[in-house]
Amino acid sequence: xVETAKPLLDKLGVKPGSKVAVVDxxxxxxxxxxxxxxxxxxxxxxxxxCDIVFVGANEMHDLQRxxxxxxxxxxxxxxxxxRPKGGRSALRDTDLIDAGLAAGLVDNKIASFSDTHGxxxxxxxxxxxxx
Length: 131
Fold this sequence. Notes:
- With 131 residues, the protein is α/β, with parallel strands linked by helices.
- It has one domain (15-125): Rossmann fold, CATH 3.40.50.
- It has helices at 8-11, 28-37, 66-69, 93-102, and strands spanning 20-23, 41-43, 50-56, 73-84, 106-112, 117-123.
- The chain has a six-stranded mixed β-sheet, covered by helices on one side.
- Strand 3, helix 3 (66-69) and strand 4 form a beta-alpha-beta unit.
- The longest helix is centred in the first third of the chain and has 10 residues, at 28-37.
- The model has no long low-confidence stretch (mean pLDDT 93).
């Protein structure tokens, strides 16, 4: 039996009707997939809280954005940080994890975003979720 790969948006938890924001992530193929799945996609800061925010990161200073972006998500929402994989990246997994903790978030999933990029999901701890 041949296993088929799970579609990217399913791996990333994007459901039909999800409210999504995208920041510093320039990937036309991904944007097309997102807009086919949900019509509620904003590039940049959303006006109301989102289910998921995708943030592109290439350098350490890009991770400081987590402090601001965490105010953009619903209490049970998620932030995916998308960065170059492996040796292509100035960022290591531990850099992302440390930045998440500094912003009051924890990582709880890693996914392959593309052949060249990986993604790590951050959420509020249950005890820290805004009421």
